[in-house]
Amino acid sequence: MNTFRQYMSWMHTWTGLVFGWVLFFMFLTGSASYYDTELDRWMQPEQPAPVVIDDTAKLLQVGLDHAMAEAPEADAHFVRIPTSRSYSPYIFTTWNGVNEDGERYFGRAELLADGSVVPDGRDTGGGQALYRMHWAFHYIPASIGEVIAGIMAFFMFAAIISGIITHKKIFVDFFTLRFGKGQRSWLDAHNVTSVMSLPYQIMITFTGLIFVVTTLFIPVFLAQYAGSDNIVETITEEMFAQPDVDERTGIRIEMADLGPLVVETQTRLGDEPVTQIRVLNPGDETARINVRGSFAHTVLRETAGVWFDGQTGEFEKYSPRKFEGGGTVINAMEGLHEGLFAGPILRIVFFVSGLMGAVMVSTGLVHWTRKRRTKLRGNAKAERNLVVIERMNVGVVAGLPIAIAAYFWANRLLPLDLAGRADWEIHTIFLVWLVMVIHGMVRKPEQGWSEQLWLAAAAFVFLPILNGLTSNIHLINTLPLPGRSGDLALAGVDLWFLVIGLGFAWAARVSAKRPHKTTTASKSRFDTSTQVAAE
Amino acid sequence: MTWVVAFLIAIPGFAALSLSMSKCQRQVFDGPIPKARSMQYRWVGAFAVLTLAIWCVIAENWSIGLVVFFGVCTIAALIIIFTLSLRPKVVRYYCWIPSERDRTASTQV
Question: Choosing among A172, A175, A363, which should be mutated to test the B contact, i.e. which has the most B CBs within 10 A?
Answer without folding.
Answer: A175
